[in-house]
Amino acid sequence: MSSGGDGRAPAAGGAGLFAPSRVATAVLAVVAVAFAVGGWRLGFRDDDGPGPGLLPFAAAVVLAVLLALMQREPAGPEETPFRLRPLIGIALCAAYAAAAPWTGFVPATLVLVAGWVRIFHGESWLRCGLLAAALTGAGVLLFGTLLRVPMPLVPGLP
Prior knowledge:
DUF1468; 2 domains; Tripartite tricarboxylate transporter TctB family protein; membrane; about 65% helix; transmembrane helix; mainly alpha; single chain; two-stranded antiparallel sheet
C-alpha cells in the first residue's frame, strides 16, 4: 500500500475531509455563528456604554478569523484518524446538561456516571451502579449539604 510508488504508507488522517482538525473547525465555526447571532440579538450599545452583546460578538469575530487562518494550513501527516469515542463522551455530557434541569441532579448524574463507566471502562453493571451511587452521593453531600448550592435533587422533592 504505497501512496505513489515511493514505498511510503498513506497518511493516517491528515488531508481527509473528516480529519479531526477539519471536524473541530466546523464545530467551532458553528459556535462562532451562535456567538455572533446571540451578540447581535443582545445589542452592542447600552445607555451608558458597551452592551451585553459586544463581547460575544467580538469573540465570534476573533474566532472566525482564527478559524480562517487555521484552514490555510494543511492537516499534517502526523494527525491521527478521526475517532468516535470523544464524540460519545461529548454526547453524554450534552445529554446530561439537557436532562438535568428536567430530571434533577440525582437521576441525571446516576445515568451519566453509570453510562460513562460502562461505555468507556467496560465495567460490570453492578460496579457501574455502585460507582454511580457513590459519586452522586458525594456530589449531593458536597454541593447540596456542605456548600448549600440550591439544586433540584429529584423532581417533586424540595
